[in-house]
Amino acid sequence: GVMEDKRNIPIIEWEHLDKRKFYVFGICMTMMIRVSVYPFTLIRTRLQVQKGKSLYNGTFDAFVKILRTEGTAGLYRGFLVNTFTLISGQCYVTTYELTRKYVSRYNNNNAVKSLVAGGSASLVAQSITVPIDVISQHLMMQRKGESMGRFKVQNQDGKRMLVFGQTKDIIVQIFKADGFRGFYRGYVASLLTYIPNSAVWWPFYHFYAGPHLLLQAISGPLAAATASTLTNPMDVIRARVQVRAR
């Protein structure tokens, strides 16, 4: 009957995708989403790290205060470094698809394939993302003339340090303080956030996604919203572990 037909949406497998278009489209979409979401990520991170309500009363208050004291640039601290996580996004998709293919030899259940592949893809992606995240979060913590985190960027003779100068500065400080392990602070918390997140994301994605490209574009964020609502508490812990002193 009609009901069976409706659930029989063909899931687009890797072989049938026009990969170049998919990657370019994916990156453009991701960049657009990131540019619009980034200030809120920065604000959320600062709100999670501040002690009580010492600096900001909430999202809107933080938004206004940061704009006033640090300008638009303040809302995008660490953004350039953060865009490197796009690479991990591509690694994620590739790992996901390859694992899915591998699992289908042993088990053809869509949910199983999505769970296993989502989990593995997450592991690979997080190994790339966490260090970038740690660095960009420390950059997010730099306020005018002070820092909310453990590390403070040196202002070289009053000139505003170039983005990559600041980045190098933070990298050196993290390494001095904690060695290589410093870049993997919160790695376990991250895995605990994103492996379930990712494992949950794909079945939801397939649930929301029809064959239409626009639908797929929308179902990504929809599935992400569903998944991140489920994993938010872990995310708070992750931000604190990464930025706070021991």
UniProtKB/TrEMBL annotation:
InterPro entries: MCP_dom_sf, MCP_transmembrane, SLC25A44. It comes from the Eukaryota. Pfam families: Mito_carr. One of its GO terms (molecular function) is branched-chain amino acid transmembrane transporter activity. GO terms for biological process: branched-chain amino acid catabolic process. Solcar repeats lie at residues 20-102, 109-211. It is found in: Membrane. The chain crosses the membrane at residues 22-43. Keywords: Membrane, Transmembrane, Transmembrane helix, Transport. One of its GO terms (cellular component) is mitochondrion. It is a multi-pass membrane protein. Belongs to the mitochondrial carrier (TC 2.A.29) family. This is Solute carrier family 25 member 44. It comes from Podiceps cristatus (Great crested grebe). The lineage of its organism: Eukaryota, Metazoa, Chordata, Craniata, Vertebrata.
